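Entry: 33 kDa chaperonin
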Amino acid sequence: MNDYLVKSLAYNDTVRIYAMRSTEMVREVSALHDTWRTVTAALGRAITAGTMMGSMLKGDEKLTIKIEGSGPASPIIIDANAKGKARGYVSNPHVDPERHSNGKLNVAAAVGQEGSISVVKDLGMRDHFTGSIPIVSGELGEDFTYYFATSEQTPSSVGLGVVVGEGDKVLAAGGFILQMMPGATDEIIDQIEARLNDMPPVSQLISEGKTPEEIIETLAGADNYRILEKMDTEFECQCSRERIQNALFGLEEQDLKEMIAEDKGAETTCQFCNQTYQFSEEDLEAILTEKQQ
């Protein structure tokens, strides 16, 4: 089954629910960064949340999430756009703290229970929205719930799950974001709270093979929601040789001259996908000549 995301309205169109299967995306990003199991869960939860948050945008809008916790895996950076594409980076992939007493991976120990999470939305036309919150849990689901309530004034519930098996293999990943809209009555809120209290952890639902639609039904009940859109999702890095070349063009002439004389070229590696780009002396000289014209 391929990854995808479902957008829906529920409870007489007073509640938005986003649900996502992100298994393949998390497998790819964990393989790229050679993450150990607890960091796989942390990075997987973050990129799942980021992809769903990106889907709330429009057109060419995009966002960046930066998780700067006190734990050894931080910072974690996620880029996502409105089209279901996302990429992620973790500064220290080789962290595996002792599990919780119930046997679950201790994501909070890897991320840190102090620090901040910031979200920068690039809305085009030089318009940016920035929201920042202190980390309240480090398990990330609770942190993004707090982010929506404080930075966007939207009462929400965020559930994120990554199931990691033997050999640090990603068995399943996914999540949901439920948001109250104007018009949600106290009765509806009580119904939702009861369902949230009764439902199994999202990691259990996805490990049982529940689809995004079935997760939405668990949250809303049968015949109590309507699907607005289904969107394919995938890991995608926007790096390119042209982008790196443009960055080199932005350097001072003296810096380029030193790279030519001392380094005989330039090499850079994308932190998101580990793609390496090499520029020879001739390449740098051509960039320098263009700058001097």
